[in-house]
């Protein structure tokens, strides 16, 4: 003869999870989220800052080509640079001549971060929260 538990199922199979087990799972998920969310946000910020710098860097090559063709930066603009390099980012916000056409300022906005360069020969500045092209 079979035991009663074999035919009806054991008591443990029908109980489900206890409240303590569910709370432990929720605490573990909470700890994982507390670690993962800030790490993700930091990663996203770094990626946006790098993308802004890359967009500005690519535009400087087109700006130098513009200067080679015109011997001045006067009249430089984002649409003019896109005629030279159609692959430039749509995140370019400011492209303008400075100092009577002997220099330029280019800025890009990616997410909540800005990057800019004043050229020719300037350093790309990142981690900005506003457009710093004067």
Topology:
Blueprint: H1 4-8, H2 11-15, H3 19-70, H4 78-84, E1 92-98, E2 103-110, E3 113-119, E4 125-128
Antiparallel strand pairs: 1-2, 2-3, 3-4
Helix pairs in contact: 3-4
Please state roughly what percent of the residues sit in beta strands, choosing from under 5%, 5-15%, 15-25%, 25-35%, 35-45% or over 45%. Answer: 15-25%
Tally of DSSP β-strands: 4
For the sheet with most strands, the description reads: 4 strands, antiparallel
What gap, in angstroms, lies between the N and C termini?
Answer: 92 Å
The best one-word shape is rod-shaped
The overall pLDDT, averaged over residues, is 89
N to C succession of SSEs = HHHHEEEE
| Helix content class | 40-55%
Number of spatially distinct domains: 1
- Total of helices: 4
Structure write-up:
This protein is of the alpha+beta class and 134 residues long. It has one domain. Helices cover 51% and strands 19% of the residues. It contains 4 helices and 4 strands; from the N terminus they run H-H-H-H-E-E-E-E. The chain has a 4-stranded antiparallel β-sheet, covered by helices on one side. Strand 2 (103-110) and strand 3 (113-119) form a beta hairpin. Helix 3 (19-70) crosses helix 4. The longest helix is centred in the N-terminal third of the chain and has 52 residues, at 19-70. It is rod-shaped, with a radius of gyration of 29 Å. The N and C termini lie far apart (92 Å).
In short:
The chain has helices at 4-8, 11-15, 19-70, 78-84, and strands at residues 92-98, 103-110, 113-119, 125-128.
Key features?
4 strands, 4-stranded antiparallel β-sheet, 134 residues
């Amino acid at each position: 003869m079979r035991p009663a538990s074999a035919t009806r199922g054991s008591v443990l199979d029908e109980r489900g999870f206890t409240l303590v087990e569910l709370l432990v799972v929720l605490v573990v998920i909470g700890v994982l989220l507390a670690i993962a969310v800030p790490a993700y946000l930091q990663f996203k910020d770094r990626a946006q800052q790098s993308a802004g710098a890359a967009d500005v860097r690519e535009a400087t090559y087109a700006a130098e080509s513009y200067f080679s063709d015109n011997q001045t930066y006067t009249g430089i603009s984002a649409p003019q640079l896109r005629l030279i390099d159609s692959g430039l980012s749509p995140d370019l916000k400011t492209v303008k001549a400075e100092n009577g056409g002997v220099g330029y300022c280019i800025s890009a906005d990616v997410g909540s971060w800005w990057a800019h360069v004043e050229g020719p020969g300037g350093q790309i500045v990142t981690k900005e929260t506003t457009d710093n092209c004067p």
